[in-house]
Q: What sequence folds into this?
C-alpha cells in the first residue's frame, strides 16, 4: 500500500519536475535569448502594431521581407504567388535532393542500380525521388509562368529592368539544373534525352562543337559526363542560383517592392 | 553640467531670431537665461501655421500648466531630439511603430508632440525644430510625465528629413503577407506529395549506348526546340532562334520596350507579341510531347499512344 503510494508519488514528482523544467526553459533565459523581442512564439506576445512590425524587423525574416508591403501586392491575384512558389519548390528540391544524394553514386556502374533501389527498396526512396522529379518539372513551369505574369504586368519597366535580366539568368539556371538532373538516373531515357539535347547545342555555329565538348567532357555522353553533370547539378548550379536568387529578392525590395497596381 | 558650444548656441539663436523676427542678441541672451523670455502667440511664430511650434525656449509641450517657470538653462541636456512641425497632417495615419525603411531620424521617440512622430513620408513639413528634452526632474509644480523642451534651433525641414517615397497604402507583412505565403507553401507541399504518391517517376532500362530508342526526345522544355529543328535547318532553329532571340533578346526586353505605361490598354503590341510567343511555344511543346512518334514523325496520341516517358503513367490514351 505504502509502496504503491510511494511509486505514485515518484511519478507525480517526476511529472511536476518535468513540467517545471519545461516551464523554466520556455520562459527562462534560453528562450529569452533565442527569441528576439516581438517574436510571436515569445510568452506574452500580444497582437499590437508594434509587435507586428517586430515579428519581421527583429527576426531573420527581415532578410526577405520589409515590415510593410503594398496592400495590393498582398493579394494573391496579383503575383499568383508564382515567384514565391518557384523559390519554395527550389527549397523542396534541395531537401529531397539531399535525401537522394545519400543513396546515389555518380558512376556508370552504380548510378542506375542506385536509382532503381531508391524506387523500390529504400524507405521513402520512391516518394523522395518522385517529389524531386515532379517538383523539378513543376519548378520549370512556375518559373516560366512567373516570367509571364511579370511580363503581362509590365513589371520589368523602370526601375525593375535589371531584375528582369537577373530573372532571365534564373530561368536559364533553372533549365540547366533540370537538364543536368535529367541524366543522373542513367537509364535509356536519361542518356538519349541528353544526347538529343546536347546535339542541339552542337548546332551553335563556330563554337558549337566546343560547347558540346565542354558540356559532355568528350564528343559524346560518357561516364565522365555523368560525373561532370552530377557535380554541376548538386554543387555548382545550386551555388550560382542561390547567389542570383539573393540578388533577385534584394532587388525586388530595393526597386520599390512589388510593382503596380496597374 | 553639459555646455553647449558657443557657435552652436549662436547659430540656433540666429535661426530662431530669424523665425521669430527678434534681434539675435536678445534671443541669445534668452537662451543663456540672461534675459526674460519673450512671450509670443504660437501662431505668430512660424508662418505656415504648424500644429506644434515650440514658441519659447522653455515651454513644455502639450498639457502645459499655465505659466511654467523658466527652468535653469544651465542644465541644458546632452540629448537632442528632432521634432518635426508638420504643416498638414500626413495622408497616412501616424504610425505608432517604427517604420521599416524610414531612416532613423524620421521616427523620433515619442518624446515630443504626437504629430512629431509621424513617419515623415509625406514631406509636407516646412519647418523643423531641434528640441532638446531635459532629462532631469521637472519643477515641482509640473504634473508627472510632462517634459520640458528647449528650442535649440529652427531649420528647414528638408535639410534634416530625407523625403523619399510618396505615401502608399501599406499593410503589415506579418500577418497579412506571411499568412498567404504559408498557406500557399502548405498547399504546394500537399499537392506535390499527393502527386508523388500517385505517379511513379519513369525509370527505363539501364543506359545503353548501342540501342537508340525511337523516338529519342529531349526533356519537355526543350521539345519545342526539337520540334522546330524538325522544320528548319538546324543552323537556324538550333542557334539563332533559341540563343539569340531566346536569351539575349529576352534580357533586352526592358531596354527595347520604352513604353512607360503598365496599363494593358497602352501595351497592345507588347501583349500581343508575348501572347504569340506563349501560345507558340506551348503549341510546339505539346506537339513535340504528344504528337511525335517513331522517327519523330507525326502521330496521334489516341491512335499510336504517347511517346513521352515522363507522361507514360499519367494518362492512358489507349492505342498501342
Ligand atoms: C528561380 C526562379 C525565380 C524565382 C525563385 C523568382 C522569385 C521572385 C519572387 C518571390 C518575386 C516577388 C513577386 C512575385 O512573387 O511575383 C519576384 C519578382 C520578380 N521577378 Fe522573379 N523569380 C524567378 C525568376 C524570374 C524570371 C525568369 C524573371 C523574368 C525573366 C523574373 C523577373 C522578376 C521581376 C521583374 C520581378 C518584380 C515583379 C514585380 O515587382 O511585380 N523572375 N521573383
A:
Amino acid at each position: 500500500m505504502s509502496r504503491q503510494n510511494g511509486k505514485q508519488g515518484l511519478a507525480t514528482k517526476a511529472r511536476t519536475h518535468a513540467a517545471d523544467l519545461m516551464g523554466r526553459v520556455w520562459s527562462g533565459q534560453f528562450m529569452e535569448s533565442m527569441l528576439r523581442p516581438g517574436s510571436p512564439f515569445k510568452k506574452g506576445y500580444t497582437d499590437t502594431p508594434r509587435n507586428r512590425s517586430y515579428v519581421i524587423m527583429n527576426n531573420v525574416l527581415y532578410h526577405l521581407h520589409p515590415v510593410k508591403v503594398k496592400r495590393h501586392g498582398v493579394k494573391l491575384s496579383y503575383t499568383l504567388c508564382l515567384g514565391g512558389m518557384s523559390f519554395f519548390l527550389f527549397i523542396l528540391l534541395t531537401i529531397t535532393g539531399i535525401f537522394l544524394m545519400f543513396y546515389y553514386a555518380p558512376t556508370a556502374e552504380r548510378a542506375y542500380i542506385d536509382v532503381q533501389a531508391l524506387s523500390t527498396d529504400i524507405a521513402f526512396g520512391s516518394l523522395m525521388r518522385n517529389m524531386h522529379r515532379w517538383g523539378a518539372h513543376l519548378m520549370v513551369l512556375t518559373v516560366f509562368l512567373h516570367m509571364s505574369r511579370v511580363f503581362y504586368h509590365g513589371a520589368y519597366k523602370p526601375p525593375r529592368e535589371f531584375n528582369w535580366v537577373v530573372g532571365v539568368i534564373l530561368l536559364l539556371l533553372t533549365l540547366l539544373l533540370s537538364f543536368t538532373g535529367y541524366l543522373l538516373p542513367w537509364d535509356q531515357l536519361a542518356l538519349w534525352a541528353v544526347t538529343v539535347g546536347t546535339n542541339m547545342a552542337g548546332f551553335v555555329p563556330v563554337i558549337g562543337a566546343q560547347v558540346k565538348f565542354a558540356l559532355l567532357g568528350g564528343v559524346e555522353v560518357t561516364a565522365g559526363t555523368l560525373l561532370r553533370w552530377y557535380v554541376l547539378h548538386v554543387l555548382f548550379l545550386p551555388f550560382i542560383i542561390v547567389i542570383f536568387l539573393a540578388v533577385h529578392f534584394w532587388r525586388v525590395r530595393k526597386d520599390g517592392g512589388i510593382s503596380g497596381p496597374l | 553640467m553639459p555646455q553647449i558650444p558657443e557657435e552652436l548656441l549662436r547659430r540656433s539663436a540666429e535661426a530662431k531670431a530669424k523665425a521669430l523676427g527678434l534681434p539675435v542678441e536678445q534671443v541669445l541672451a534668452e537662451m543663456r537665461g540672461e534675459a526674460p523670455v519673450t512671450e509670443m502667440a504660437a501662431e505668430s511664430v512660424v508662418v505656415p501655421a504648424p500644429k506644434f511650434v515650440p514658441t519659447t525656449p522653455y515651454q513644455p509641450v502639450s498639457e502645459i500648466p499655465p505659466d511654467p517657470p523658466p527652468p535653469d538653462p544651465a542644465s541644458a541636456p546632452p540629448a537632442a531630439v528632432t521634432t518635426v512641425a508638420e504643416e498638414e497632417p500626413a495622408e497616412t495615419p501616424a504610425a505608432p511603430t517604427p517604420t521599416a525603411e524610414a531612416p532613423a531620424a524620421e521616427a523620433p521617440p515619442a518624446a515630443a508632440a504626437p504629430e512629431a512622430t509621424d513617419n515623415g513620408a509625406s514631406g509636407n513639413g516646412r519647418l523643423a525644430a531641434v528640441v532638446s528634452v531635459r532629462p532631469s526632474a521637472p519643477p515641482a509644480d509640473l504634473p508627472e510625465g510632462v517634459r520640458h523642451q528647449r528650442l535649440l534651433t529652427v531649420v528647414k525641414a528638408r535639410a534634416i528629413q530625407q523625403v523619399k517615397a510618396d505615401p502608399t497604402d501599406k499593410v503589415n507583412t506579418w500577418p497579412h503577407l506571411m499568412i498567404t505565403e504559408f498557406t500557399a507553401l502548405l498547399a504546394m507541399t500537399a499537392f506535390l506529395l499527393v502527386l508523388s504518391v500517385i505517379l511513379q517517376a519513369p525509370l527505363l532500362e539501364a543506359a545503353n549506348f548501342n540501342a537508340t530508342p525511337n523516338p529519342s526526345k529531349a526533356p519537355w522544355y526543350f521539345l519545342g526546340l526539337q520540334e522546330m529543328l524538325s522544320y528548319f535547318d538546324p543552323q537556324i532553329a538550333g542557334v539563332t532562334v533559341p540563343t539569340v532571340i531566346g536569351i539575349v533578346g529576352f534580357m533586352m526586353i526592358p531596354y527595347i520596350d520604352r513604353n512607360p505605361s503598365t496599363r494593358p490598354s497602352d501595351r497592345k503590341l507588347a501583349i500581343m507579341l508575348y501572347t504569340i510567343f506563349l501560345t507558340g511555344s506551348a503549341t510546339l511543346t505539346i506537339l513535340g510531347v504528344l504528337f511525335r512518334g517513331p522517327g519523330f514523325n507525326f502521330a496521334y496520341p489516341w491512335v499510336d499512344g504517347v511517346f513521352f516517358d515522363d507522361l507514360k503513367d499519367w494518362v492512358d490514351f489507349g492505342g498501342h
